[in-house]
Structure formats: structure tokens, C-alpha cells
Amino acid sequence: MVAAREAEKRPRVSTIKYGIRPVEVVSPEQLERIHQASLAILREIGIEFRDETAIRQWKEAGADVKEHRVRLEGEMVMDLLAKAPSSFEMTSRDPSQRFEIGLDTMTFGAMQGAPNVRDLQGVRRASTIADLRDMNRLTQMLPGFHIAGGFTCEPTDIAVPWRHLHINHSSLVETNMPFFGLTTGRERAEDSIAMGRIVHGKEFMDQNAVMMGHVSGNSPLVWDATMLEGLRAFVEANQVVLLSPFVLGAANTPADIPATIAQLNAEALAALAYTQLVRPGAKMIYGQYSVSVSMRSGAPMSGMPEVTLLNAVIGQLARRYGVPWRTTASQSSAKTFDAQSGYESAVAYMSGASACANLMMHAGGWDEAGLVCCMAKFVADAEQNLLIEKYAKGISFENFDDALEAVRRIGPGGHYLGDSFTLKHFKDAFIAPEILDYLSYEQWKVKGSKDMAQRCREKAKDIIASYEQPPLDVALREELDAFVAKRQEEISPSIA
Amino acid sequence: MVAAREAEKRPRVSTIKYGIRPVEVVSPEQLERIHQASLAILREIGIEFRDETAIRQWKEAGADVKEHRVRLEGEMVMDLLAKAPSSFEMTSRDPSQRFEIGLDTMTFGAMQGAPNVRDLQGVRRASTIADLRDMNRLTQMLPGFHIAGGFTCEPTDIAVPWRHLHINHSSLVETNMPFFGLTTGRERAEDSIAMGRIVHGKEFMDQNAVMMGHVSGNSPLVWDATMLEGLRAFVEANQVVLLSPFVLGAANTPADIPATIAQLNAEALAALAYTQLVRPGAKMIYGQYSVSVSMRSGAPMSGMPEVTLLNAVIGQLARRYGVPWRTTASQSSAKTFDAQSGYESAVAYMSGASACANLMMHAGGWDEAGLVCCMAKFVADAEQNLLIEKYAKGISFENFDDALEAVRRIGPGGHYLGDSFTLKHFKDAFIAPEILDYLSYEQWKVKGSKDMAQRCREKAKDIIASYEQPPLDVALREELDAFVAKRQEEISPSIA
């Protein structure tokens, strides 16, 4: 109940406008060099669209197509890109869930795709549908998220061909937030859209984006049918697509940062342009997921400076193209929710915010290079989102003159604690976290010497205990349940 | 021995030139507004120099002085500031220790002033001279520091009036690095300079800066005699001073970020100008230490967004004035080396680096709001320094064209692991940390399921076990020991 009241106190984050100017890693001339290299890759090497529909569409648009290899002129790419919106809204059945994703805004989405959880007892194990529901309950209750992750953790107790049904069901029932649907293949994407339409209505979704679809590339220089089918289903239903080349530095890109950026930018440009070919004005985000790879173990490494630099350049490119971009926040490779997890996550957060990323993906729970969704970390990250929001907004000069009067009043050697300006403004001036602990060592010992992981687990338990399902019309809920049951009868639970 | 070899592999950080452009929080017009507000504070309210020598010097310079209140015209302040160097070198008896502190460089100093350690068994207790020696041994061995912290932790087993002697002794014996001397009062500052001169020679120090002195202000708007005496001793000996207003947001500054900056900037400007009055061309750094204060407990809070924003604006101001600036890296309020410690530290690191801070102070070991020097965290932070160095340097285009040839060679759907470009460049392209762990979960379990704190404690033990004292002429060492003995006879161990 305490947790519920605390969550109520603070409404969910809405549109966050950046007040800071982004860190920039390359000069305008260097940015142009990377851009031109990307266009040269698309023109000279080309890119593979392993999908017959896309191939037909590119041919009709006048591209140079040989089998699945599509070679694109820069002019065609840029003409298509010019049709893309530089900002758009997402919303949901709760009308208070409405926010803008744009070139100058920041949004937070929960993590996705973990096959394991670190649960409320701190035990690492395969995740189930019950865990996914708990994760969605936490997402719904914590104010630090704009978008529910959809498949925050995998319900591994449900057959793979049925999973997308239960994932969407939980997103739509446990939360009333915009959420990530499933895009892996035509059927799953269409099921996702159909389930969204049951709850929101087709007409509402034709006018409003309530879902986002994650469309991953296959670096180097391949987009495959499974993903492109999902892209088309979402775009045709006026929902948002996130187009993400997947970079493992030095494994599927060159061992060079600017050349890695040039390649992933070529991949992104091809998919962004294709999306506008499918539907001019389609809502889309320049995505990418990048890690460098340990040359000792082959393992992906989080929070590395090369990825931080790469992110900032992607930001510069996205602003050049006028398209919102995403980065990955809160990622860590730690095997337990320890100091490593904190260092790596905060580097990812600050690197995304300082580069003015428009969508902070995986901003909650991501540990062990994405193999674990840590419930404790999710609570910590949700609070980090609120701190990062405040940083992103920058400084207000609204009370500057009044505050300078206080300086005059207090003078040398005084103190401000009792001053009228302080009493009026201290609550808004400085944020006060609840999970980060500022007790003295002695107070902290009296309270049980709890480390951050322990405090977060307790908080997560409180929140889940106090969770209340958001209202959903009974008839719609029954229709949704029936849809899942019907599709389970139609789809074989065995993978073909 | 492994640790020693690893430390040898990587030479100590030298001059680090920024390759990124800093994040900016306020517009040029807003920056000018803050600057003008600072000048108005100095002109209209004035600032107290509670020190007769400084008062005399300000009078002679033509300032408006009434008792200890000094009112300064903007023109006088800016004329004095124009005499300050925008960069300078620090060095030591080891000629390989030579680096530049400037407007476009980054340096790392170890933490200072903790009265407690969290030791190699993870136990928190009052720190001793043996701990300080261990901290200096770690500083000497780890490649991530430019400057030894001097009083990294307090030798609480030595009488306060004698401590500065033993602190300087350890800096000069355990390390051969530039280091922080003591500035609290004329005698301690003069002892520090005298001890430096024993080892380095007066003539060498007249030409080269080997020491830095930390000169703290007394916000709001006071500089006291103890600190100003230390300032003069260091500046007259051609050593560096770091001028630091000490901000507890909403306690000794207004509860408003830009007004807090205007006040601390006024304090800094007065001290920076005074330093140039004492000795034109004096080597100095625009410092400041800022935390916001919890309105629940009164405790200082680390890693808060307000301080991140404030830091970035200080960077903008310092660049306007042409003076290097410092920020605080690695600060945390955590009571144990847990995820909170990691989050808060990395926020401080990234905020300093993204704002292009020139001196990253307390970049190693700082926990519990500075009340603890954590030996494990010190090792973790030393590695973070190397990661942050790589970020700060930005992106090289040196191999860009060759790497793009690799893109052409590999084409769609291939992979780069065996490519000649990869084999030639992967080691330089991506940094490979040793303390951050990238094993798989299964490998990590086999290796003992060690969290970061445990891995760091083990590494610290290895390093201390393999430590070798840097060479120091026997006669000089004897002279240094004799100086300490003589001064201990002269100084009463009881505080007057």
C-alpha cells in the first residue's frame, strides 16, 4: 500500500523535451563523410532484401535489383526519407497515456527478450508467463516508462508458436500503456495487430499508434522476409516500426568505429527508405543495437566507450535525416545485480541522454547481456529513468531572478535552509530518489544494512502486492481471451 | 606477479586530448546571463576574504574594500583572469610522468579526504597510515591516474598536527607521480612545499609543477585565511592551485540551479582573480565540489541530475574564461560497493566526460559521500578511467578507407572475424576491460560466482603484493625522513 501510494504520487512520464544540446563526436565534415560512405555502400555494394514482396516494390520504384541484391541511388533514398515524420504521438486506451516521440524528445521502453529472470528471491532461472505478467505489473505501476516492453522476458513455459498470443495478451491486460507487439513473421504481426484492434478498435488504431514493432536487421547488409513481413503489417496498420541493424563490432561489422557506423547507417537508411516506400508518412524510428565483442571470449560487452561514441554519431546522423532515433539504455553484462551492473547501466543511460536519444530502449531490467531480466534492477532502472528525465530537460531560468534576490538577502557567510525562497522551491529544485539510499552509515546499519539489490527486491514485492489491473471492458476482455483460444487451436504448438 | 605484469603492459595515462564536443546545457545568451549575474554579485554584494594579506592586496589593486568585504568590478576581475594560463604541464622526478592540464585535455586524480576505509576484507573502519600507504601503492601501480591523491584516506592513527608530514612523505616515497600537497594553513603548505623540494629540488620546482594544492571556499561568498595562506604558498612556489567553492545545493546556495551556478561562479571568479593578483600567470584550475542535499535527511546526494547539469554549465563558463576546470568523478553515497555505487559513479564519470572536464577529481575509491575510501572500488574506478579516456578521445578516421574496403570485400551476409582488416585492427579498435566481467553465466559460476567487489578486492591484494617502490636517492630519502622527524619535534601533537 505504501508503494501504491508512492507510485500514485508521481504520474507516469509523458512527453520529455530535451533542454540540453547533445554531445557531438564528429565534425559536420566527418558526418558528411560517413553519410557519403553509407550512400556509396548502398549504390555500389547494395543490400539484400530476402523477400519477394520487397524486391517487387523496389523494382517498381526503379531501383537496380539483381536477384535479392538491391542497389540504391542516394537521391532515391533521400527522397523517400523526406516523407518520414520527424515526430509522432503514441497513445493507448487510457487517454492520459499520450506522448510524443520526436527529434527533440526522450522516451523510455522496458527491456525485451530475456529468456531468464532473476526473481524476487534473487534466483536466476528460465522465465515463465507468470514472470512476464509480474514484469508488466511492475511496468504499469512504476512511473518511469512510456512503453511496455511486450516480451520483457520470454514465457518459456509456453510453446514458441503460441507465445506471441500470450505476450500480447499480457501487455493488453496487465497494462494500459502503449506496448511492443510481435513482428517475427506475417502471422505473428497480424495476430498482434488483431489483438490490439480488439482492445482499441480498428478505427482508433487507424488514427493512433498504440503499438511499436521491433524490426531487426541482419548485419552485414541483409533484411530478411520474416522481419519485412512484420514491418509491412505494422506500417499498414499505422503503427510504429523501430528499424534496428544489429551490430556486433568486429564480428558483423569492420573493426573500425566510423566504418561500422557507415555500414549500419547504410542498413538503416535502406530500411527507413523501404518503410516510406510501403507507406509514405509511416511512423518509424532509426534504431540500432550495438555492442563490441570481447576478443578474449567472443562475449558481447556492455557500456564500452566505442558503443558510447557510436551512439552519439547515430544521433548526429538521425538529426541530419530528421528521423527520431533509439539507443539502448541500462544494458549490462553483469551476472548479478552488483556494482558492474550499475556502472555499465549508468554509462549507457548517460551516453544516450547526452547524445539526446529519442527512444531509450531496454531502459529497465537488462543484465547478463540481455539473457536475464532482473526484477530488482528493473525497479532501480525505473528510478534512473526519472533522474535521466530531469537531466534531459536541462535548466529552467524561471526563478533565476528571485533566487538571485535570495543571494543578496543571505550575503557572505549565511545559509539558505530557512530562507523563504528555499522553503518555496527546494522540492522542485532537487529530485529526491527513493531507491538510491542517502542514509548515514549508522542509520543504514540500523535499517538492516541492505544493499541496493535487496532494497529493490523488497520494493518490487510491495509494488506487485499492491498492483491493480487497469480497467478493461468485460466484453473486450472476453473477445481477447477467445482470440487467444481460437488461434491456439489453429496454430500447431510444435515448430514446423 | 600477474597483476604487476598487467600493470606494466599498459603505461600510465598521459595527456588525453578530447576528441568529442561537449554537451551544453545553456545557450550562449543564458551563459552570458549567468556570467553577468556573477559579476553583479561581486560588484554589489561583494565577497569576504577573511585574511589580512589578501585584504591589503585587494586594496592595493584598487578594489572597494570595507573591513573584509571586497567588492570587485567586472573589468578588474576579467583583466586578472586574462593573465591565467589556459594550459600547463605537471611532471615529477620520473620524467615519463609528464602531462598537460588544459582546456581541451582530461586528467584523473585519486580520491581525497576519507576518514574511513573499506579494506581488502570488505570491512569498514577508521583509516590508518598503513592504509594510506596501500592506497598510494595502488595509485602508483594502476595506470588510470595522473595525480596521486595525497590524503586519499586520512591516517587517523597520527596526530592531526603531524598528519600532513606523513601524508606528503607517503606521496613522495610510495609514488613518483605528481601529487596533492596540503594547503590547510601556512605552516602545512610550507612544509608540503619544503618536502617536495627535498625530493625534486627547488630549482626544478621553480620551473615545473609537481604538486597541486586544493583550496576550498566557504560558500556563500567567503574565502578564509587558512585556505588563502595555502594558496599563496603554492602559487609562490610555482605549484598548481585548485580553487573550489563547496556547494551544498539549497543549504549554502539558493534552491535554484542557475542561481547556484551564478553564486559559485562569483566565488570562483574572485579566487581565480586573486590568484593572478598574487602571481600573474599562476597555474590554476576552476574547481567546485557540488552535491544536492536530501530534504528528507539532510544528507548529500551523489550523481543527481541537478549536479550533472551544473557541471556542464561550469564547463561552459570555464571555456569562456579560458581556464581549465575540474569536476568530481566516481562519487557515490552507497554504504557498500553495490549497484548504487556503480550507478552513481558512472553518472559522475559520464557527466564529467560529456561536459569535457579537464580534471576528474576523486576518480577512484569515493563511496559513502566521501566518508569511505573503498579499496575495491578504487580498482574498479581505475579501470573506468581507462574506458572514459577512450570515450573522451573520440573517433579516429585513420583507418576509415581501409575499413570500407573490408565492407566491400565481405558484402551482404558475410562476417568479419577472419578478415585481414579485423585481424590487424581489432585489438586497437575495441578496449578490453579486465575487472568488468564478460564471461558467460556458466563460466562465471565455474570461476566462483564472484561479484565485482570480490574480484576487485582480489585484484587489489595482487597489486599490493607485487608493488615495488619507485627509485628514490638514499640521501634524499634520509633528508625527507629527517625533515619529518624534525618537524614532529617542533610541532605539538595536540591541537592548540
Automatic annotation (TrEMBL), chains A, B:
The keyword Methyltransferase is annotated on this UniProt entry: yes
Pfam families: MTTB
Keyword entries, A-Z: Methyltransferase, Transferase
Alphabetical list of Gene3D superfamilies matching this protein: Trimethylamine methyltransferase-like
One Gene Ontology term from the biological process aspect of the record: methylation
Coiled coil regions in record: none
Keyword Methyltransferase: yes
EC number: 2.1.1.-
Annotated GO MF terms: methyltransferase activity
Recorded family membership: Belongs to the trimethylamine methyltransferase family.
Name by which UniProt lists this protein: Methyltransferase
Species of provenance: Mesorhizobium plurifarium
